[in-house]
Amino acid sequence: MGGDEFKKKIFRSEEERSGEISGASLIFEEVPAHLIIEEVSKRFGIPVYDITEAKRGKGKKNIPRMVGMRLCQTLGRKKLSDIAKIFNVGHYSTVSSSIRILRKEVESNKKLQNLINILTQDLTRLFLITMNLHRKQKTLCQSVGKPSLFLTGTLRYDVGRNEVSHIDP
Questions:
Q1: Residue 139: partners with Cβ closer than 8 Å, 6 or more residues away
Q2: Apex 66 CA angle, 3 and 121, nearest 5
Q3: CATH number at residue 119
Q4: Helices 92-108 and 63-74, interaxial angle, to 10°?
Q5: Domain enclosing residue 118, as ranges
Q6: Which of 19, 66, 82, 129 could form a disulfide with 102 if both were Cys (CB 3.0 to 4.6 A apart)?
Q7: CA-CA distances (angstroms) from residue 92 to 5, 60, 76, 161?
Q8: Which neighbouring-strand residues pair with 166?
């Protein structure tokens, strides 16, 4: 797919052409998937389970799930295969199809486009705040000798193990 130098050159030339740097490219670290899923869940007013678990059936569109997948790709900088694991789908092509369907939906639905833009801005802000807290907490935990944990709604993020787990209410 290309080495690091090639990727830098492509991204640099893309920014030079557009004259604009996207908000996601200002974050040098990945926004964790659990943070994205939790925020999408809150914004759409549905449980995390409805986003992370597949629902089968012809014509079923789970827009919040698709939004979560897309944000994991853009803000989380996750590969499609990683997103497939996070969202419990069998193959990365399903993720690719879902994101493509979402793009088409966004083209005709300005309200959805605005919602995704707001989510992106909020997640970027939330991530930067969380990273700042993480640095402070990590320093504190290192001095006390305990692992760092973040609790966000129904998800638990163990920094030391880089694991996300669900908390039963």
A1: none
A2: 75
A3: 1.10.1750.10
A4: 110
A5: 23-143
A6: 66
A7: 26, 19, 16, 25
A8: 155
Higher pLDDT, 35 or 168: 35
How many separate domains does the chain show? Answer: 1
Q: For 143-147, which contacts have Cβ atoms below 8 Å and span 24 or more sequence positions?
A: none
pLDDT reading at 78 higher than 80: yes
Q: Which two tokens stand for residue 53?
A: 């678990």
Report yes or no on 169 lying in a domain: no
DSSP assigned state of 21: -
Which of 19-28, 54-63, 87-96 is predicted with the least confidence, judged by mean pLDDT? 19-28
The strand pair at 163-166 and 149-152 is best described as unpaired
More confident residue, 59 or 28: 59
Q: What's the pTM value of the predicted model, to 2 decimals?
A: 0.63
Check whether 93 has a pLDDT greater than 80: yes
